[in-house]
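Supplementary Text 2. Reproducibility record for the structural model of the 74-residue chain.

All settings were left at their defaults, and a single model was retained for analysis rather than an ensemble. We include the record here because the model underlies the residue-level annotations in Supplementary Table 4.
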Amino acid sequence: MQDRLDRAPKSMRVRRATVEHPFGTLKAWMGATHFKTRTLEKVRTEMSLHVLAYNLKRVIAILGAQPLMEAMRA
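Retained model, structure tokens:
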């Protein structure tokens, strides 16, 4: 991994800009650092719901609600 970063040092800057923002937003929604459930299975479910909500919010912001509803009906 370090070898790849040494060959392309700007890649980490790109990663921070594209990946870290959604995780930061999800952490803020979740109350910073804690899950509300216990056990790995329940935490996975909780995280999946957070990611689904985030993705739906993004689709609505980009396309609007009507195209999303039409795509879900198809």
